[in-house]
């Protein structure tokens, strides 16, 4: 029998080959399987790395081809996750609509990206997402938006509920919740008219797992989660995709803003931990946006390796 002859061959001395030889020998006693050769098994074992590299190249090509020429609107694009998203979408060949309050930073980012990716069209918009009228007026100049990344968001302070100021509460809710709604309301009608588009909301683990001294921020991100899920139902009869990406601990300007510019306090948040950075989340955003049009990754939770929950982190001594 061919399989018995195969079992008698001396296969390469590797754990995989040993298991394969044993399995083939015993299965040959009862199941007629196609004949394999020692040479073909050795080839597969030795070529795994090159095959993996080739497959990765095809994967990256397919993702880039889906995003090339797409118009991507990113809010909060002047720093952190938003800036990283701009860089990664530009790398994929997408045209960029970059919105943020800090116009000077946007212009610097635009110049940098244009020097690296001259084929990419980039427009910048000074925009405070809390201002609904300004959002509507600015959106009228966008043209078609294929992908919206609702990234603008912030946290202020780390106080108990009774100590949170009205200003801090309004800023978080107006930016994280109402701002996201304002931009979505401005862009979604066009997506419906074209019956295509993708809205990617940047949420937070805080929207899934509340923690003490974070009541308003956690509540605002829980609202983002609920809004995103509701949009899934509201767009189910369309080709529009709705996604939410929930980062865990990410080292950006987030903690600097939380502690009102106190860099030492902000740095202490990440002490003993290797946190995520903006690029880690941007890669995830681009991956989600780059799926085939019939595939929607509705929700993702992204942690650094040593994080298990919103406030459960292992810190190296």
UniProtKB/TrEMBL annotation:
Gene3D superfamilies: NAD(P)-binding Rossmann-like Domain (3.40.50.720). Belongs to the short-chain dehydrogenases/reductases (SDR) family. Keywords: Oxidoreductase. The lineage of its organism: Eukaryota, Fungi, Fungi incertae sedis, Mucoromycota, Mortierellomycotina. Pfam families: adh_short. This is NAD(P)-binding protein. The keyword Oxidoreductase applies. It comes from the Eukaryota. One of its GO terms (molecular function) is oxidoreductase activity, acting on the CH-OH group of donors, NAD or NADP as acceptor.
């Amino acid at each position: 029998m061919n399989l018995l002859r195969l079992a008698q061959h001396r296969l390469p001395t590797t754990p995989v080959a040993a298991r394969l030889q044993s399995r083939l020998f015993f299965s040959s006693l009862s199941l007629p399987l196609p004949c394999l050769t020692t040479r073909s098994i050795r080839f597969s074992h030795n070529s795994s790395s090159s095959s993996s590299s080739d497959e990765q190249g095809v994967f990256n090509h397919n993702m880039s081809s889906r995003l090339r020429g797409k118009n991507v609107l990113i809010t909060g694009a002047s720093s952190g996750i938003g800036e990283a998203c701009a860089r990664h979408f530009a790398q994929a060949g997408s045209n960029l609509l970059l919105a943020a309050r800090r116009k000077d930073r946007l212009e610097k980012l635009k110049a940098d990206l244009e020097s690296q990716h001259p084929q990419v069209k980039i427009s910048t918009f000074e925009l405070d997402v809390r201002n609904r009228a300004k959002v509507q007026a600015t959106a009228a100049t966008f043209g078609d938006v294929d992908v919206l990344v609702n990234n603008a968001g912030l946290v202020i302070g780390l106080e108990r509920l009774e100590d949170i100021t009205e200003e801090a509460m309004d800023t978080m809710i107006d930016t994280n919740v109402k701002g996201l709604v304002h931009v979505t309301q401005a862009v979604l009608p066009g997506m419906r008219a074209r019956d295509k588009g993708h809205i990617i909301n940047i949420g937070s683990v805080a929207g899934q797992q509340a923690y003490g001294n974070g009541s308003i921020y956690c509540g605002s991100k829980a609202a983002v989660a609920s809004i995103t899920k509701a949009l899934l139902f509201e767009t189910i009869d369309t080709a529009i995709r709705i996604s939410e990406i929930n980062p865990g601990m990410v080292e950006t300007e987030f903690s600097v803003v939380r502690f009102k510019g106190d860099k030492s306090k902000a740095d202490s948040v990440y002490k003993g931990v290797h946190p995520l950075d903006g690029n880690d989340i941007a890669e995830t955003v681009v991956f989600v946006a780059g799926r085939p049009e019939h595939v929607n990754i509705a929700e993702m939770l992204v942690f650094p390796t040593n994080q298990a929950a919103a406030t459960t982190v292992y810190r190296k001594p």
